[in-house]
């Protein structure tokens, strides 16, 4: 992570801009980053996942996560990766959480559903009413493939059509939400305006329906952070994020009511801190030693990458 020095020195420290410590609220979401395995190697990936990675959550960690989900006050299970579908514990987590009647969200790059061994997953997710949060960097082929690789756009469209045929984005019980990422070092346009364009383009050209579009700012870490540093764009990008700081976003940050768990059971305030190896504050650092009292009122650890979630309309 050669870019960390540049990241910290580029602009005024995030905690100074906010003006006060961020403290955790009542927990709502247990987020599990269960693998670094992925069938893609996207340019903006903050955890640098790829087909060459092998890290995966083991069953002991998964079982402890489900114990916490059941016994504590979490309402939502958020499963991410990697391509989380490639994890050996993916189906176990979903089946177990579904038996508890918890809300379940799974992040997906969509294209994994076209690969051998995963083609039955749309039906599996439908039966358990799992909400799908699917990455589609843009509604046009050129920009999507620039970020994610040649052919990814068409594969994604094919999968979205399959999901819609199953009722996703059309049946209220089958939520399909899309995620937009800029293709470069820029802050996304207004989410509502962008969602309207996505909705029109995807419906008119491909008969695809979805529920919501989430507009995500690229975090200056991982592969994207390395590119910013190599190309001399880190200072410019961080200055852009800092200048666009919106204090109205602070009370809605995901880190306030989310506990993020890595594949090895280590605990983090969010998935971006996880990617940087920044553990939670306090003496208990893993899913095996954390106590329920650690969840509320804990100081959130921040760095300058946190400007990602407070720029413009927010991104978390």
In a few lines, what is going on in this structure?
The protein is an alpha/beta fold.
Show the helix and strand layout.
Layout: H1 4-9, H2 14-18, E1 29-33, H3 59-71, E2 76-80, H4 90-99, E3 103-108, H5 121-127, E4 131-135, H6 141-148, H7 152-165, E5 176-180, H8 191-206, E6 212-215, H9 222-230, H10 234-243, E7 258-261, E8 267-268, H11 271-276
Parallel strand pairs: 1-2, 1-7, 2-3, 3-4, 4-5, 5-6
Antiparallel strand pairs: 7-8
Helix pairs in contact: 3-4
Report on the architecture of this protein.
The chain has 316 residues and is an alpha/beta fold. It contains eleven helices and eight strands. The chain has helices at 4-9, 14-18, 59-71, 90-99, 121-127, 141-148, 152-165, 191-206, 222-230, 234-243, 271-276, and strands spanning 29-33, 76-80, 103-108, 131-135, 176-180, 212-215, 258-261, 267-268. The protein has an eight-stranded mixed β-sheet with strand order 6-5-4-3-2-1-7-8. Helix 3 (59-71) runs parallel beside helix 4 (90-99). The longest helix is centred in the middle third of the chain and has 16 residues, at 191-206. The radius of gyration is 19 Å and the shape is globular. The two termini are 23 Å apart. The model has no long low-confidence stretch (mean pLDDT 93).
């Amino acid at each position: 992570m050669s870019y960390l020095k540049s990241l910290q020195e580029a602009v005024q420290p995030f905690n100074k801009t906010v003006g006060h410590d961020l403290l955790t609220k009542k927990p709502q979401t247990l987020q599990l980053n269960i693998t670094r395995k992925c069938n893609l190697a996207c340019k903006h990936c903050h955890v640098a996942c790829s087909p060459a990675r092998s890290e995966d959550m083991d069953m002991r960690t998964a079982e402890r996560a489900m114990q916490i989900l059941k016994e504590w006050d979490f309402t939502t299970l958020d499963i991410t990766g990697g391509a989380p579908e490639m994890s050996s514990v993916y189906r176990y987590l979903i089946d177990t959480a579904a038996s508890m009647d918890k809300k379940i969200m799974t992040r997906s790059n969509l294209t994994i559903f076209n690969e051998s061994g995963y083609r039955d997953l749309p039906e599996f997710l439908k039966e358990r009413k799992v909400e799908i949060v699917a990455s589609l960097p843009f509604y046009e082929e050129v920009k999507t493939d620039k970020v994610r690789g040649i052919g990814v756009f068409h594969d994604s469209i094919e999968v979205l059509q399959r999901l819609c045929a199953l009722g996703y984005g059309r049946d209220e019980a089958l939520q399909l939400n899309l995620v937009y990422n800029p293709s470069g070092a820029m802050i996304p346009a207004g989410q509502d305006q962008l969602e309207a364009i996505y909705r029109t383009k995807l419906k008119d050209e491909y008969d695809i329906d979805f529920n919501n579009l989430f507009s995500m700012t690229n975090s200056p870490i991982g592969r994207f952070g390395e590119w910013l540093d190599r190309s001399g764009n880190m200072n410019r990008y961080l200055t852009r994020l800092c200048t666009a700081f919106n204090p109205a976003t602070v009370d809605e940050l995901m880190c306030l009511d989310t506990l993020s768990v890595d594949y090895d059971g280590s605990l983090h305030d969010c998935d971006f801190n996880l990617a940087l190896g920044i553990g939670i504050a306090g003496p208990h650092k893993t899913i095996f030693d954390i106590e329920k009292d650690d969840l509320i009122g804990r100081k959130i650890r921040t760095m300058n990458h946190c400007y990602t979630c407070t720029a413009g309309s927010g991104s978390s």
